[in-house]
């Protein structure tokens, strides 16, 4: 999928604009078995203050995966609150986004930014619920739905 979600922030960096608001729909790439079938709704409000780019906003996207424990389908609505500051002039040291391609010159890649923020907001493992009983280690029965004769042994 081609990515064409680059936003020109030169006006903001040059002081010509006070605020830049971006509303975009961007695709999030699948990772570690978690898929994002619909584009994420991204809302960004960017300000340039003291040579730092302040980005506030939200990302909402539906994540689909499988419970780590019982392997059932899990659907999660992921909401990310963005409150980031970073230096668009930095070479990368100390910048969590530095080694990535969020910035190319005066352009901010909304898709890359959203991808990284969604990934960092996702839990390490997906579970269908806190009370998931998982699968029987012996026969593989889903213990949320039924019991098996191995239970208790
Ligand atoms: Zn489960
Ligand atoms: Zn069993």
Give structural notes.
Helix content is 10%, strand content 35%. It starts with 5 loop residues before the first strand and ends in a 32-residue tail after the last helix. By secondary structure, it is mainly beta. It has one domain. It has a 4-stranded antiparallel beta sheet with strand order 2-3-4-5, with helices on one face. The protein binds zinc ion (2 copies).
Task: List key phrases describing it.
153 residues; mainly beta; three-stranded antiparallel sheet; 2 helices; 7 strands; 10% helix; elongated; binds zinc ion
Task: Give a quick precis of the structure.
10% of the residues lie in helices and 35% in strands. The chain is mostly beta strands. It has one domain.
Task: Lay out the secondary structure.
Elements: E1 6-8, H1 10-13, E2 20-26, E3 40-49, E4 52-66, E5 73-86, E6 103-104, E7 107-109, H2 110-121
The chain binds zinc ion (2 copies).
One zinc ion (ZN) binds at residues 67, 69-70, 72, 127-128, 132.
Fraction of residues in β-strands: 35-45%
User: What sort of overall outline do the alpha carbons produce when their principal axes are compared?
Assistant: elongated
Give a quick account of the main beta sheet: strands, pairing sense, barrel closure. Answer: 4 strands, antiparallel
Bound molecules: zinc ion
Oligomer: single chain
- Mean pLDDT, to the nearest integer, reads 87
Count of discrete domains: 1
Q: Identify low-pLDDT runs.
A: none
Query: Within the largest sheet, what's the order of strands?
Result: 2-3-4-5
Helix/strand order: EHEEEEEEH
Q: What count of helical segments does DSSP give?
A: 2
């Amino acid at each position: 999928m081609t990515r064409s979600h680059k936003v020109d922030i030169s006006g903001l960096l040059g002081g010509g604009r006070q605020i830049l608001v971006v509303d975009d729909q961007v695709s999030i790439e699948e990772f570690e078995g978690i898929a994002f079938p619909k584009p994420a709704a991204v809302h960004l409000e960017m300000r340039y203050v003291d040579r730092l780019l302040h980005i506030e906003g939200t990302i909402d996207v539906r994540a689909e995966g499988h419970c780590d424990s019982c392997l059932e389908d899990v659907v999660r609505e992921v909401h990310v609150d963005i409150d980031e500051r970073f230096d668009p002039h930095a070479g990368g040291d100390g910048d969590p986004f530095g080694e990535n391609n969020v910035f190319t010159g005066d352009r901010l890649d909304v898709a890359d930014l959203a991808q990284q923020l969604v990934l960092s907001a996702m839990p390490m493992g997906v579970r269908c619920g806190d009370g998931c009983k998982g699968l029987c280690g012996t026969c593989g029965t889903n213990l949320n739905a039924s019991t098996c004769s191995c239970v208790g042994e």
